[in-house]
Design goal:
Strand order of the largest sheet: 16-17-10-18-19-9-20
CATH superfamily of one domain: P-loop containing nucleotide triphosphate hydrolases
Oligomer: single chain
CATH topology of one domain: Rossmann fold
Strand content: 15-25%
Bound molecules: adenosine-5'-triphosphate
Distance between the termini: 61 Å
Helix content: 25-40%
Number of strands: 30
CATH class of one domain: Alpha Beta
Length: 754
């Protein structure tokens, strides 16, 4: 059936227009979709004419013409396909096609099982005008369209053309600006545009090195989303002799991508990271892949025992260093260096390992010359870029006539760029932070940080990523936040990989959650909609600060960053901000409703006591049982008298570390009563100053109106719901209260109101 249709805007169901076209249309297929949402709907200006009125809930109508609806039986059952047909006057004649049209192969789909495949070209000029001039492979355009990536980001606009034309690229752009696809799309385009053997024996084309496991997995997910069939049966050009294929503009046959009766990905991407089964990763490599995304450590482990893979890396077509600078910080220099040696040409190799260089034959040597190198980061310093350029200009100079500035500098200079002058694209913002990011600060004593953090998390519920400098801090804060009924997840290097990914997924899928993380989460992680980044401790370097902040305000979304700073950290904070060209007091302070802090402090104090108590009981239990457990494990029978003596040692009858049952019972009762006390506190509403708990219309700040409007804060009565960015105060905090000797930090703090 070929039909026109109309649909309501987001809230409205699809409504077909009466006109229905012939089922076997002779029109050419322009594009094909499996979801009606992807069709080129046009808004209808007069919804009344359709017979709908507002009471039907209709806000707006959209219609689409020249769509053929096809039902098809596939391996996955019956699927519906929507073919957008070309109007007769739109159909380009073969002989009229401009010479500069995309070199990329066309994608064909089977419109009907009974018919031979029809050819269509994705009309990127109409559907994706901003991407059209890149001449990317049709499949890529389809995915971009289905993902609603309607325009390239600035780094993509600048990096994709030189990368497609074979240049080496060094790209520096703010966090969350789409760097992955800036290097990823040219790679995928190359792979899709070059015919490959029909068997699974693919040649490794690209190696992408990333500093952390999470980032490597994320990059591979990103690329994988471009490796699968999106709308209908995607075909590719093939050298295979196939009896009934369609034909691409280049004259080569196009065939459905089905091997051994099942679909194989258009581009196969393997991830090699630590913390996951090496055997399984080796098995994946045995099947051969197009792209490897790896952390240097695991890749080198595998390479040491896999000469075939080492040979493939010598003949790579693309080498990518994502977050190159972080690779050094993560202590990967040595492995990186060894891997990079494999990618150097013989002439360069001779400097390092003459014997290995001689092993390369002429064919390998020539493929080596086509290697393209992409280096991307949000924080490659200008100094490094200058130095790199200088070095490349003096490539022919004497050995050792330049002294590298730093380790990363040294590493990048070990890269054997084939391009005499790689394209350096630096569109990083001045000051290192994204324009949609709001930076702020909060000054307090270190001992009060927990209370202020708790205040912030309650006051501004959302997805908050809290960075701490040490794992111990996370271990301490996690139970505290959990006892305070906040959903918190840890992320640090001492967690098993599986647990790390699980926690990340939970955080991603929980709208109001806290991720307590060390700096392993600072770089590259693309977590949708992180509302707040909180620096519980000042980061060690400007780069880490920039990357931590980069977890929020991604892809032009708004984001908020809070630097919690104690007096001891003030000097470090000052110099950190100075490096970003900012003064400390140029960061607005977040206004805190001080009257609430007393209650919050009581809750935090109780939670801490409970945690300590639980910890003590756990430790006691462990000590009580270790002897029994060890004996059981060793299959030894213990003399009961000996056990009694050991568990209740005479000199330790009152010792907390070796208590009697009675003491343990007492500890458990104490924990239970503390928990009950905390429960009571948590159930009591937090009242802002001037609020009457009994009469919501009384007091200096009546809240009835806010409640009626649904504008009242859910846990802090008397406060309106606000975003953290709404509660900022420029300049220095004015101290109202005089600091009295002997007072605690919280009492010393000045009162600040929005
Ligand atoms: N052209 C585009 N249009 C819309 N969204 C895009 C586009 N390109 C990428 N994105 C999305 O933007 C987000 C950030 O992309 P990506 O992770 O590549 O950023 P990045 O620059 O590598 O960040 P970081 O420096 O933090 O690693 C991702 O969710 C990605 O899907």
């Amino acid at each position: 059936m070929d039909a026109g249709g109309a649909k309501k805007s987001s809230k409205v169901k699809l409504k077909r227009k009466a006109s229905s076209l012939r089922s076997s249309s002779s029109k050419r297929i322009k594009a094909s979709f499996t979801s009606a949402e992807s069709l080129p709907w046009k808004t209808v200006s007069e919804p009344v004419a359709t017979g709908f009125d507002e009471e039907d809930g209709i806000l707006e109508l959209e219609e689409v013409d020249d769509v053929e609806v096809v039902y098809e039986d596939t391996d996955r059952g019956r699927v519906v396909k929507f073919n957008v047909l070309q109007k007769p006057d739109e159909s380009p004649r073969r002989d009229q096609e401009p010479a500069h049209e995309p070199a990329s192969p066309s994608v064909a789909i089977e419109a009907d099982e009974s018919q031979s495949p029809q050819l269509f070209t994705f009309d990127s000029a109409t559907l994706l005008p901003d991407w059209h001039h890149f001449n990317l492979h049709t499949h890529i355009l389809q995915v971009l369209h289905s993902r609603k990536f309607n325009s390239p980001t600035p780094i993509q606009s600048k990096a994709i053309p030189p990368a497609l034309s074979g240049r080496d690229v060094i790209g520096v752009a703010e966090t969350g600006s789409g760097k992955t696809l800036a290097y990823g799309l040219p790679i995928i385009h190359h792979i899709l545009s070059h015919p490959r053997p029909p068997t699974n024996q693919r040649k490794l084309q690209a190696l992408i090195l990333a500093p952390t496991r999470e980032l490597a997995l994320q990059v591979s997910d990103h690329l994988n989303s471009f490796s699968k069939v999106v709308n209908g049966d995607v075909m590719e050009e093939s050298e295979e002799v196939d009896p009934t294929p369609g034909e691409s503009p280049s004259g080569k046959p196009v065939v459905p991508i089905r091997r051994h009766g099942c679909r194989v990905p258009l581009v196969s991407v393997a991830v090699l990271v630590g913390g996951m089964s090496v055997q399984r990763q080796r098995r994946v490599l045995d099947r051969t892949v197009d792209v490897i995304v790896a952390t240097p450590g695991r890749l080198w482990d595998i390479l040491e025992e896999d000469d075939a893979l080492a040979n493939q890396i010598r003949r790579l077509r693309f080498l990518v260093l994502d977050e190159a600078d972080r690779m050094i910080e993560a202590g990967h220099f040595e492995e990186m260096d060894k891997i990079l040696r494999l990618t150097r040409r013989q002439s360069k190799q001779d400097d390092i390992e003459p014997e290995r260089g001689n092993l390369l034959n002429a064919a390998e040597q020539s493929t080596q010359d086509t290697l393209q190198t992409f280096v991307f980061s949000a924080t490659l310093s200008k100094e490094l870029q200058r130095n790199l350029n200088k070095r490349l200009r003096h490539k022919g100079g004497k050995k050792g006539d330049h002294t590298p500035l730093s380790t990363i500098d040294d590493l990048l200079l070990r890269l054997d760029f084939r391009d005499p002058q790689p394209e350096v694209i630096d569109i990083s913002p001045s000051g290192g932070t994204v324009s949609t990011l709001q930076l702020s600060r909060l000054e307090c004593l270190s001992s009060d940080k927990d209370v202020y953090l708790y205040y912030f998390l309650l006051r501004y519920p959302g997805r908050s990523l809290v960075f701490l400098s040490a794992i111990d801090g996370i271990r301490r804060l996690l139970p505290l936040l959990e006892l305070l009924n906040l959903k918190a997840f840890p992320l640090h290097s001492q967690l098993e990989q599986r647990q790390r990914l699980k926690n990340l997924d939970r955080f991603k899928s929980t709208p109001k959650a806290v991720l307590l993380a060390t700096d392993i989460a600072a770089r590259g992680l693309d977590i949708p909609a992180v509302d707040h980044v909180i620096h519980y401790q000042i980061p060690r370097s400007v780069d880490i600060f920039v990357h931590r902040n980069g977890r929020t305000a991604r892809a032009m979304q708004k984001g908020f960053s809070l630097l919690i700073c104690s007096p001891e950290e003030s000097r470090v904070a000052k110099s950190l901000l100075a490096k970003l060209g900012r003064r400390e007091d140029s960061l607005p302070a977040i206004a805190v409703e001080m009257t609430l802090l007393g209650d919050l402090k009581a809750r935090v104090h109780l939670a801490r006591q409970i945690d300590q108590q639980q910890h003590k009981v756990k430790k006691q239990n462990h000590e009580r049982h270790w002897l029994k457990d060890t004996a059981e494990a060793m299959d030894i029978e213990l003399d009961p008298d000996f056990v009694r003596q050991a568990v209740t040692h005479p000199s330790a009858s009152e010792d907390e570390s070796n208590p009697s049952r009675y003491q343990q019972k007492r500890a458990e009762t104490k924990t239970a009563s503390l928990k009950a006390e905390l429960r009571a506190l948590l159930s009591k509403p937090l009242l802002a100053r001037g609020i009457s708990a009994k009469y919501i219309t009384f007091g200096s700040r009546p809240i009835a109106d806010d409640l009626l409007e649904g504008n009242a804060h859910e846990t802090m009565l008397g406060l309106k719901r606000t975003d953290a960015g709404d509660d900022l105060m420029a300049g220095k905090i004015k101290k109202r209260a005089k600091v009295k000797k002997g007072k605690t930090g919280l009492e010393e703090q000045s009162e600040v109101r929005p």
